[in-house]
Amino acid sequence: MNTIRMIFLDQEGRVRWGYKFLTLVLILELLLPVLLVFVSGFGLALSLPAMRERGIVDAAGILAEEYRETAEGVWAICLLSIQNLLLTGLCLLFGRLLLKRKPGQLGFRGGFVLGAKELGIGLGLGAGLLLTASVLIVLSGGARIEVSGQENLSSWLLGYLALFVLVGLGEETAFRGYAMASMAQTENPPLICCFTGLIFGLAHSANSSFSMMGFVNISLVGILLALLVLKTGRLWMSIGFHIAWNFAQGCIAGFPVSGMETRSLFVMESTGNALLSGGGFGAEGSVLTTVVLVAALAAVYRLYWKGNNT
């Protein structure tokens, strides 16, 4: 009995953190996909009559050719938005039921002014680092930048902005809020930052054009964001960073966002080695982004430890 107890419980009688962390895997790999199929399928069924009436689909539900490109983009935005709303809800629910933590204990705390300030810092940091990496990629000859000239750009940018807000909310709730809370009992900040960062990198492995450099850079971003959460005790800065990083990468600089194409103000055309340009995975696949992230990580790491030793 004692042996069995030791397998599941630590010396203080708490469920071992590894089992708690596995519930995040359960959410991501089982509950979220199942719920997404049901919710998106239900939404599609509700919208079909209106789409038939407008000629977007025919009687058999086949998409009209002239709407195909637009519909695919809109569907991707809607599907990913629903996915991240569900992810946020599931993590908050399981955080309350299994981890016994309220939303505030997962990082959603602080007054409006403090939250807005940290969100703004995160937005500036995320956009600044991504655009710095983009400039380095262009200057190195890895890519050439041009004005996109795409039609209806403002509407698309608003749609992608809404999407990236929800992506930032969902992924930060999961990989920083829930994941770090499940490991809190280790009382080991380096382990918490590195492990959650690596898992964050692995979580993107199914994305289009995923590469080893993509894994390295997304893991570095994960470690950086974990440090920000440890420093502040809140998610606002990491959420802001995540939103701005994705939006600046896809909708301003014109890179794929972790392999996903978006509409953008500019278009980046790869002209050099994929190690410099990032290839089909975007700026996150570039070694120059690695340099920027390592420098940022060193600065934040120093700030974190300085703040904890004064």
From TrEMBL:
GO BP terms in the entry: CAAX-box protein maturation
Transmembrane spans: 21-46, 74-99, 119-141, 153-170, 190-206, 212-230, 242-260, 280-304
Residue ranges of every copy of the CAAX prenyl protease 2/Lysostaphin resistance protein A-like domain listed in the record: 155-247
Alphabetized GO MF terms: endopeptidase activity; metallopeptidase activity
InterPro entries: Rce1/LyrA-like_dom
UniProt-listed Pfam families: Rce1-like
Keywords carried by this UniProt record: Hydrolase, Membrane, Metalloprotease, Protease, Transmembrane, Transmembrane helix
Top-level division of the source organism's lineage: Bacteria
Name this protein carries in UniProt: CPBP family intramembrane metalloprotease
